[in-house]
Amino acid sequence: EAGVTQFPSHSVIEKGQTVTLRCDPISGHDNLYWYRRVMGKEIKFLLHFVKESKQDESGMPNNRFLAERTGGTYSTLKVQPAELEDSGVYFCASSLAGLRGQSYTFGSGTRLTVV
Amino acid sequence: AQSVAQPEDQVNVAEGNPLTVKCTYSVSGNPYLFWYVQYPNRGLQFLLKYITGDNLVKGSYGFEAEFNKSQTSFHLKKPSALVSDSALYFCAVRPGGYNKLIFGAGTRLAVHP
Lengths: 115, 113
Known about the structure:
Chain A has no helices and eleven strands. Helices cover 0% and strands 49% of the residues of chain A. The N and C termini of chain A lie far apart (37 Å). By secondary structure, chain A is mostly beta strands. The radius of gyration of chain A is 13 Å and the shape is globular. Helices cover 0% and strands 51% of the residues of chain B. Chain B contains no helices and twelve strands. In chain B, strands 2, 5, 6, 10, 11 and 12 form a six-stranded mixed β-sheet that branches. At the A-B interface, strand 4, strand 5 and strand 10 of A face strand 5, strand 6 and strand 11 of B.
């Protein structure tokens, strides 16, 4: 089966611009997650979709970040306007429905650089 | 606060020697524990997980991890390191009742020929 696909793989934008990251989960995976790793620190949870609904968005840093998952398939994460501290690697992951024993499959990540 | 600690930024080991990458955690409930690896310019790749049962879990590429509930640890081990094991390793924990992962900061493993 195809894995979790993210694009672009790299993005360099200027402070104040807008960037949209995309994630295509594994087909049939209801759960979709966004994480990011900033400046070599730990990978931090941003939010969790179950199908098209936001189940948990407690990790979203501020209202410059907007995530959507139209139709419960692919998801986008928009940063508007981007700030320098938004630079990092943004990972998407997906998993099957249910909690017990599930594994999370991660994408290759999008490396965002804000200059 | 719930957290995962990987106390070593980098672990250096000679090829053929055993390796250990340490992980301790502080989370609520009965957690599920994971190890992921990131090779250069690649995404996070699943290595192994502990859900319940035998404390010694075997995973991909000859890696294993031992769950120690009393010490709240989940150290990653391999009996004989390969140069190709050189990568960034992340320990992650899913606290009981939650559906998200808490990651450690990562440990860079360098295996020298």
